[in-house]
Design goal:
The structure is a single chain. The chain has 5 helices and 12 strands. With about 200 residues, the protein is an alpha+beta fold.
Length: about 200
């Protein structure tokens, strides 16, 4: 898991994009579909770790922990939370201009997850990576199908402490958020820039 590359600062002006993304929210957030889709990438990552590295990986069973548990040959453990980003936050410059973020560079994480992982690192002494799978952003991906970015939670914490609510946004609930009478869709996200992450230079 050591094959990481720091990305170069990336700035893209969406205002001059000839194939601008659709920034219109349809207010339909298919929680179950998104969850199932993400689980597919979790399994791809688990398979890659087990077949191509000296680590062993399994789906986490402990409630509230990140998606994937990874062990080295000595039994030392770290965790990976997998986030698949298919949609771009096209209105980020208008809605949270204080963030200084552009749509193409913006990735999101459930704020409650982020806070919980801070606490797990502090109290449980866990090592946690956030692993973003980026899809459907031609301005970033160019000819590639997808790219993978990562960061340790401990490395994201200083950004959170510096930016505070400048990166926080609560969206309205929409169709698909309610599953079996319970609100399961994420409505409060915290946002980071791809320039604050590192590129993982491997294929799953």
């Amino acid at each position: 898991m050591e094959n990481y590359l720091q990305i170069s600062p990336y700035v893209y002006d969406c205002k001059v994009c000839p194939t601008r993304c659709d920034g219109i929210s349809k207010m339909h957030y298919a929680f179950e579909n998104d969850a199932n889709f993400s689980e597919g990438y979790e399994q791809k990552l688990i398979n890659y770790i087990n077949l191509s590295t000296n680590y062993s990986a399994t789906k986490t069973t402990q409630k509230g922990y990140p998606d994937v548990e990874v062990k080295d040959k000595n039994g030392k453990v770290f965790y990976i939370e997998v986030k698949v980003q298919q949609r771009t936050f096209m209105s980020v410059e208008r809605i949270i201009p204080e963030s200084g973020l552009k749509p193409s560079e913006t990735v999101a994480l459930n704020l409650s997850d982020l806070i919980r992982y801070f606490e797990l690192e502090d109290k449980g002494k866990l090592v946690i990576f956030i692993f973003w799978v980026i899809l459907n952003r031609p301005c970033i991906l160019k000819q590639e199908k997808m790219q993978y970015y990562y960061r340790l939670v401990s490395e994201l914490k200083p950004i959170y402490e510096e930016q505070k609510d400048k990166r926080r946004f609560r969206r309205k609930s929409g169709e698909g958020d309610i599953v079996d009478g319970k609100h399961k869709g994420v409505t409060v996200n915290y946002h980071f820039s791809l320039n604050e992450l590192k590129l993982w230079n491997n294929e799953l």
